[in-house]
Design goal:
This protein is an alpha/beta fold and about 375 residues long. It contains 12 helices and 12 strands. A 7-stranded parallel beta sheet has the order 8-7-6-9-10-11-12, sandwiched between helices. A 5-stranded parallel beta sheet has the order 3-2-1-4-5, with helices on both faces.
């Protein structure tokens, strides 16, 4: 059996978007080993066809030279004696090339801006691009013209169902995040005040509202102190959070890791975008909608794959109002009640006419 080694440590969203490509290789008969960060390892363990090899990303990238070297040598020892047909390092950053130095592989590939075949092309979804780059390493298959397009997320297996209130639509809000081992990307966040206003309207409608997030997201909890909702921020493991999202009728978040976790579940999704392009990140499955702020802004999207343009007002995110999000939630809930699936779509404020949120609060169907 041919063997593939993937090196993709994090972040959560990037790892989840690389899973369909790994699955495409698995379907071609490849045994898949994956070097990943310890944070995302529990996600990959939900897929029994992936052999998970965890590495301490913080020690590798954010420690002194001695600690980094020891961690690197420990990883090399874990990979010693293994032979691969393909070793794919899904990064542009040359530092990650060190991880693959001692690995025995017939072909080694890394992302590069110098080759169209081995770079993530603008305007295409990252899941499709990762799959295209991996499949390109199989000469016969790629020569047959196999070009991945609109690959859906691969649903997680073995989730423990999360209990819920009967008779009340469950809406999960993920109001923080946008932070990984490398940096804090606050420009991607929808304002916490907007999440609180949306939560108040959903509660008035009689919906069950739950907050989700990791231990580093507790700062956002104070915005919801006056509201009657359930706050699970920092209380659930990553796998428990995925199960919680799977139990939700609708999940609302911005461009952050839990958006992609929601993509591997059955929840409908309202995703809020501004500086990043949703066409490359919104899960490509039914009942997912992106609201993309900044229509008419010359600077949108400002994220170039590495950095954001200097910005003090974050106007693209402020352009999305709680009323717009509320309207999309209602549309998704109506479709679910009627047994209909809606195609994934990207909408902008000018294409999303909805009444003021004050007109919606307290209205019951």
């Amino acid at each position: 059996m041919p063997r593939l080694l993937l090196i993709k440590l994090g972040a959560i969203g990037d790892v989840v978007m690389a899973i369909p490509g790994a699955y495409a290789m698995h379907r071609k008969g490849y045994e898949v080993d994956w070097v990943c960060g310890e944070v995302v390892a529990p996600i990959l363990r939900l897929y029994p066809w992936i052999n998970v090899i965890p590495a301490d990303e913080k020690k590798l990238l954010h420690s002194g030279k001695v600690t980094s070297l020891r961690t690197l040598v420990a990883l090399w020892r874990a990979l010693a004696g293994r032979k691969y047909d393909i070793c794919a390092t899904l990064y542009y950053d040359a530092r990650y090339k060190l991880l693959a130095v001692p690995i025995h592989a017939q072909w080694k590939v890394m992302l590069t801006k110098d080759s169209r075949v081995r770079q993530l092309l603008p305007g295409r979804h990252h899941a499709d691009e990762y799959a295209r780059i991996l499949l390109a390493q199989i000469p016969v298959e790629y020569a047959n013209g196999e070009t991945p397009s609109q690959l859906a997320p691969i649903r997680a297996e073995g989730l423990t169902p999360s209990s819920r209130r009967a008779g009340h639509p469950r809406i999960v809000l993920v109001p923080a995040g946008a932070r990984n081992a490398m940096r804090d990307d606050g420009l991607r966040r929808w304002p916490a005040e907007n999440y609180a206003e949306l939560a108040a309207a959903l509660i008035a409608r009689g919906y069950e509202v739950i907050l989700a997030g990791g231990p580093d997201d507790s700062w956002v909890s104070s915005f919801f102190d006056a509201l009657s909702l359930t706050n699970f921020i920092g209380k659930y493991s990553l796998v428990e959070t995925i199960a919680l999202l799977d139990s939700a009728d609708v999940t609302v978040t911005h461009d952050t890791g839990p958006l992609h976790l929601a993509g591997i579940t059955n929840t409908a999704i309202v995703a809020i975008f501004g500086p990043t392009d949703p066409r490359g990140r919104l899960p490509q499955r039914s009942n997912c909608v992106a609201l993309w702020g900044g229509e008419g802004f010359a600077c949108r999207p400002c994220y170039d794959g590495r950095d954001y343009a200097p910005c003090e007002h974050n106007g693209c995110m402020h352009q999305i109002t709680p009323a717009m999000v509320f309207g999309e939630i209602e549309t998704l809930l109506t479709a679910r009640r009627e047994g209909r699936d809606l195609l994934p779509r990207v909408r902008t404020p000018k294409h999303t006419p909805v009444p003021a949120l004050t007109q919606l609060e307290g209205t019951r169907s």
